[in-house]
Design brief:
Blueprint (H helix, E strand, L loop, with lengths): L1 E6 L2 E6 L6 H9 L9 H20 L5 H15 L18 H19 L21 H37 L4 E6 L2 E7 H26 L1 E2 L14 H15 L4 E2 L3 H6 L2 H27 L10 E2 L17 H25 L9 H25 L5 E2 L1 H10 L8 H4 L1 H14 L3 H7 L5 H7 L2 H4 L7 H4 L5
Parallel strand pairs: 5-6
Antiparallel strand pairs: 1-2, 3-4, 7-8
Helix pairs in contact: 1-4, 2-3, 2-4, 2-5, 2-7, 3-4, 4-5, 5-6, 5-11, 6-9, 9-10, 9-11, 10-11
Length: 472
């Protein structure tokens, strides 16, 4: 069973029970490239934008009550996912978002017609363009929907980053007094505590949380009502403020009217800015994951200071092997996000005059990155960070084998003398403390004063309050 639909280019046979129409079917034939539909979050946002517009059009007397009521119900059906199978356009369709806008218009219109008791395709009653696109253009609806989806995801992701940071802070407090070897360029450096290492990771995530909220402030400004190029042609002025206010009410998100609708329609640098923040966050996650893999390496023949939770068997041939699979997953997600940032930045730079036609790519990559990062961060927290334990004996073993404490004695003995003692300790496998006592530089009690964990891991000269007389 089919129905015939027509547009200015000709006609198509549409399955009779399909909610999509000729515009969506043309797009499906033209743009079947990725095999991926638009993200669910974007479909939700488009449905809510359409709902806000329909509500305002009814309020200002441009849409009859019975039609508006049916359209509002249809928007709700699409928003919750009941009509997702009818969104048939590819994520990377051409047309600056027009193909998705058309598909959405057709699906909502036909669902509304069904609610009113009419057959699908009865466009003389509710038309996908006239009624569904009333006082709108793809060029204000689509960017507004993209920003709405991003704002929602940014808020959710910022909350998850705060939880991840909190998990690191718990470990910071738990392991604040365990002394270990600090390393620079993968070589022994100076003493640190395990807690300090966790604190550094937590602080990096704190900056990421701040950046996400900064990005939120910029991207929440939408151009709804600007229509084709931001001038608002064919849109009553009253519609603009009312539609954005209703969109804010329907979503619960802090959306606001852009100060310059014309500028907001043609420029996409806010998306590039958000992507840049995500890239920075991804870089931090990769660094943290790399550190965890390094510090948990072995465990017998590596560093093995940290123990990561064993979440799955690590080898099909080596019995008992367990790999750091969660940090490896985090690293791969980070790499993907960094790659996506290149795509977003390039696409944002490719806008021409009053419009950027490559916003579908920007939307797909940004929303995808946010979704991946949020899921990745949750798994990182739940499946790895919360279960990390410290092998205190291993930390002490490596610390005792290392000569890293020699730096604490340089204010008393000078750089050259300490370098000589360090060389002897390393070449002969002796402890620095033994050589210092043997040479008569310090007593055992004085060395203990200098090598207290608090003295070695805080600003100032270690042990100076006890040994000021020795300072040269």
């Amino acid at each position: 069973m089919i129905r015939i639909e027509r547009d200015s280019l000709g006609e198509f046979s549409i399955p009779k029970n399909a909610y999509y129409g000729i515009h969506a079917l043309r797009a499906k034939k033209n743009f079947s490239v990725t095999g991926q539909p638009p993200h669910r979050e974007l479909i939700w946002a488009m449905a809510i934008v359409k709902k806000a517009c329909a509500w305002v059009n009814r309020e200002i007397g441009m849409l009859e009550d019975n039609k508006a009521d049916s359209i509002l119900k249809a928007c709700d059906e699409l928003a919750v996912g009941n009509l997702d199978g009818q969104i048939i356009v590819d994520a990377l369709s051409g047309g600056a978002g027009t193909t998705l806008n058309m598909n959405i218009n057709e699906v909502i219109a036909n669902k509304a017609l069904e609610f009113m008791g009419f057959e699908k395709g009865s466009y003389d009653v509710i038309h996908p363009l006239f009624h569904m696109n009333l006082n709108q253009s793809t060029n204000d609806v689509f960017p507004t929907a993209v920003k709405t989806a991003i704002v929602r995801l940014l808020r959710e992701f910022a909350d998850e980053i705060a939880l991840l940071q909190g998990e690191f802070q718990k470990k910071e407090k738990e392991y604040a007094k365990i002394l270990k070897v600090g390393r620079t360029e993968l070589q022994d450096a100076v003493p640190v505590t395990v807690g300090q290492e966790f604190s550094a990771w937590a602080e990096a995530l704190n900056r990421d949380w701040w950046r996400l909220n900064k990005a939120l402030e910029r991207v929440r400004q939408v151009n709804l009502g600007g229509t084709a190029v931001g001038t608002g042609l064919n849109c009553p002025k009253i519609f603009i403020d009312m539609a954005i206010e209703k969109l804010r009410e329907f979503t619960g998100l802090p959306l606001a009217k852009a100060e310059n609708l014309f500028e907001a329609t043609q420029n996409t640098d806010t998306f590039s800015e958000v992507s840049g923040y995500l890239k920075t966050l991804a870089s931090n996650l990769i660094k943290i994951a790399s550190d965890l893999r390094f510090l948990s390496s072995g465990p017998q023949a590596g560093i093995g200071e940290l123990r990561l939770p064993a979440v799955q068997v690590g080898s099909s041939i080596m019995p008992g092997k367990v790999n750091p699979v969660i940090p490896e997953m985090v690293t791969q997600v980070g790499i993907k996000v960094i790659a996506s940032d290149h795509a977003v930045s390039f696409a944002c730079s490719m806008g021409n005059l009053e419009l950027n036609p490559f916003l579908p790519l920007v939307a797909h990559e940004l929303i995808g990155s946010l979704k991946m990062l949020k899921s990745c961060s949750t798994l990182f927290r739940e499946r790895c960070i919360s279960g990390i334990t410290v092998d205190e004996a291993r930390c002490r073993e490596l610390f005792d084998k290392s000569s890293c404490i020699i730096t604490a004695f340089s204010p008393y003995l000078g750089y050259e003398t300490c370098a000589e003692i360090y060389k002897e300790a390393v070449s002969k496998g002796r402890k620095v403390e033994e050589i210092l006592i043997e040479r008569g530089f310090f007593t055992k009690e004085e060395i203990e004063s200098i090598t207290q964990p608090q003295e070695l891991t805080t600003p100032g000269f270690a042990g100076i309050k006890y040994l000021r007389r020795l300072l040269k």
